[in-house]
Amino acid sequence: MNILMTLANPFTHDPRVYNEAKSLVDAGHEVTVLAWDKTGRNVSRETKDDINIVRSYNSRLMDLMPYDIFRLHLWWRKGYRDALDLYEELPFDIVHCHDLSSLPIGVKLKKKIGLPLVYDAHEIWGYMVSKNVPWWRYYLWKEKRLLRHINHMIVTNKARKDFYRQWTDCGITVIDNYKHIFTGEYIKPPNHGNQQLSILYIGGFLETRFLLELIEVVAELKDVVLNIGGRGRLYREIEAKANATNNVHFLGTVAPEKVIPMTVENDVVFCMIAPYDKNDITASTNKQYEAMVAGRPIITAKSTFSGRVTVDEGVGISVRFTKKALKNAIIQLRDNPEMREKLGKNALQKAIQKYNWEEQEEELMEIYEKS
What we know:
Layout: E1 2-7, H1 15-26, E2 30-37, E3 45-48, E4 51-57, H2 60-64, H3 68-89, E5 94-98, H4 103-113, E6 117-121, H5 125-128, H6 137-146, E7 152-155, H7 158-165, E8 171-174, E9 197-204, H8 211-219, E10 224-231, H9 235-243, E11 248-252, H10 256-264, E12 268-271, H11 286-294, E13 298-301, H12 305-313, E14 316-319, H13 323-335, H14 337-353, H15 357-370
Helix pairs in contact: 1-15, 3-4, 8-9, 8-13, 10-11, 11-14
């Protein structure tokens, strides 16, 4: 089967899309990812691990737009035309759209060519942009309207499935952001048995991730080191704040293949997301599952999906979204290496038993077998 995936980012750091595309390729399918490269800094075509990547650049009119949210509406038209050109080269059998930010392209292709359409909702997109876009409710309305045209839907967890079940009667499959098993045996962390602690965060530099507060807390503590890397709106601010301390190391942008090996090299993973954010409270986080396959405990926020997983599975500590609560959690983990080891070993065991990509891969294959 020849599969076209559509994606509103340049496909350089998207582990979920990569895992799905690679699994489909390994199963014998041909996968092409049509990716929107807003900056035009990446090559227009390449093949990575047998995944064909075709990048769509901005038109002149799109470059004149002041914000990406305005460019997006024009990219839906341009991406559709680019997809039709790809169809002329090598007709595809099915379209797999990632997020609302590329779903309109798939809907237009289905109307034009009559292909089956799979919709993969990583986020509740309208809620995600509500922090920055006053008319965010429009995207909730648009997504609900477009769901009438899809053949099957993929979401990241049961909370998201319950949300979308209010809007559609089509089949919905949960495929979470689990990771491939990295090791079958517990690997001792750098500070094994010591009352010292290294914390790792690699991910999005967003306001709702409590990262500036994390740096401030760590800067006040002895025998604690924070390694922080990623990309996003707060990049320069986080870099400056980290460099102004003695125990926070700024890593810059980290290649996806290095994330889990680096996780193993640290004692604890940090992943506190805002419990007041309508999108984030039901989000499945990559950090959660990276920590589990690496055998490392995690610090999460209460009243979030990741916080519930942490507590229910006994794989870390979930605390209130405050600096005081975070500081107490870090001190507790620093001063109790036996606790860290117990949580880390349990996290790895849970990953081996359930929380691994190999389990999710079977769900993905079943969707395509029925398409």
